[in-house]
Amino acid sequence: MKKASFHRSFLHLVALAWLPTICALNIVIPGGSGKFGTLLASKLAPTHDVTILTRNAFLASAPSRVTEVFGYVGESFLRKHPNVSLRDWDGGDLLDIVGCDWMGWQEDTLKKADVVVNLVGGYTEQRTMATERIVRESLTVNPSALQIAVSPREEDLPIISPGMPTLKEKRLQDCEDMVKANCQNAACLRMECNNLENSCEEIIKVIESQSS
After folding, report:
1. Beta bridge partners of 148
2. Is the pLDDT of residue 21 over 50?
């Protein structure tokens, strides 16, 4: 009887050894406090640890939204997804800091990241400054992290942000060039703005292909 029990236990251990393993990653999402970022975070959170870099973590995690100026994740979302956390950062503009605890994000968050998904929105010079900040700090503390720069398709840009399409497209291209030229492990994705579900799946595919 003891031999049979031992045999079953041994076979169980062998079977477990052959099961596919899921490697949990530390994923950082600058600019992830909008609709796109929270959707992506919710899809990553069951398997991975996700940190959203936001310019005001206090307001982004409030029980209800109090302003349209900053992104919003919400207290209920964070309770539902315990693997998602928020971290203040400077957003690349040291002259316009609004978070209360923005210092040290490079050491406590960026340094341990396996993947950085840049969802910093807007099409002003702020986007360029934020990308430069992410790239520069990554080269200092974590040059091997996978850097994914996400931008809208050129044909979608006039729809989601009317006016000055040539200038805005140049900013997007400059950010992509900055990432590709400086990061040893990088991917630049152009997403369809009206299909966030598919865009999230495309990002997850890149993460899985690079980390497998």
Report:
1. 117, 187
2. no
